[in-house]
């Protein structure tokens, strides 16, 4: 049970979209002249902005561009994965079924990334030994934090190069040009001006 003095220091995180943050900030401004911290809404901190609408827009654009439900027999397409993993609730209409589309894209994306990583390291599954692109033997035990970080980034750059080359092959197939500039800066340009 909380004591009276512990309530003074209690902070309650609040999450919401940008409009929720603005409304809470406006309410706190209106009550800024109140006598107590509770009346001034000072305990409602931190306010965490959740980019729900940005994610929804991204999923909508992604589904519009890459989820062609007529091509469910074409291996490797999002429609093919939809049928393969029995996602009947994914129909391309993100606004009406946001959670289903978010889970579907996340599941497929993680699975594809995992397969690219396993292929990069020459592994057949999570439990098999690495057969290529091994990190340095002493990376986990004897290296300082800075050297471990460099080894990690070198290894991950190889994985990300593999993923980017796979995406480039897929996107070239879809009449899309992917231009990679620098190690971690990716810029996409569409030949047909589609978004």
Helix content, binned percent: 40-55%
Distance between the termini: 54 Å
Overall mean pLDDT stands at 78
Topology as a string of helices (H) and strands (E): HEHEHHHHEE
Indicate the multimeric state.
single chain
| Total strands | 4
Largest sheet: number of strands, sense, barrel closure: 2 strands, parallel
Number of H/I helices: 6
Structural class: mainly alpha
Rounded to the nearest angstrom, the radius of gyration is 24 Å
Which term fits the overall shape? flat
Q: How are the strands ordered across the major sheet?
A: 1-2
How many structurally independent domains? 3
**What is the strand content?**
5-15%
Sequence stretches where pLDDT stays below 50 over 5 or more residues: 171-195
Write the layout of secondary structure elements.
Elements: H1 4-8, E1 14-16, H2 18-30, E2 47-49, H3 52-66, H4 78-84, H5 98-120, H6 145-173, E3 176-181, E4 185-190
Parallel strand pairs: 1-2
Antiparallel strand pairs: 3-4
Helix pairs in contact: 5-6
Explain what this protein looks like in three dimensions.
The protein is mostly helical. The protein folds into 3 domains: 4-49, no CATH class; 52-134, no CATH class; 142-195. The protein has 6 helices and 4 strands. The protein has helices at residues 4-8, 18-30, 52-66, 78-84, 98-120, 145-173, and strands at 14-16, 47-49, 176-181, 185-190. Strands 1-2 form a two-stranded parallel ribbon. Strands 3-4 form a two-stranded antiparallel ribbon. A hairpin with a 3-residue loop joins strand 3 and strand 4. The radius of gyration is 24 Å and the shape is flat.
């Amino acid at each position: 049970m909380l004591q009276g003095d512990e309530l003074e220091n209690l902070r309650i995180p609040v999450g919401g979209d940008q409009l929720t943050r603005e409304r809470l900030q406006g309410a706190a401004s209106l009550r800024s002249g109140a006598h107590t911290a509770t009346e001034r809404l000072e305990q409602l901190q931190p306010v965490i902005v959740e980019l729900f609408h940005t994610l929804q827009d991204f999923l909508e654009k992604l589904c519009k561009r890459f989820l062609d439900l007529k091509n469910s027999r074409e291996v490797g397409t999002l429609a093919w994965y939809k049928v393969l993993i029995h996602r009947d609730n994914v129909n391309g209409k993100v606004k009406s079924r946001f959670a289903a589309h978010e889970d579907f894209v996340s599941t497929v994306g993680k699975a594809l990334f995992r397969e690219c990583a396993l292929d990069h390291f020459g592994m057949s599954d999570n439990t098999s030994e690495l057969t290529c692109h091994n990190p340095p033997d002493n990376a986990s035990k004897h290296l300082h934090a800075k050297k471990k970080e460099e080894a990690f980034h070198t290894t991950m750059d190889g994985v990300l190069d593999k993923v980017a080359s796979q995406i480039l092959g897929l996107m070239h197939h879809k009449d899309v040009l992917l231009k990679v500039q620098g190690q971690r800066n990716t810029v996409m340009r569409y030949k047909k001006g589609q978004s």
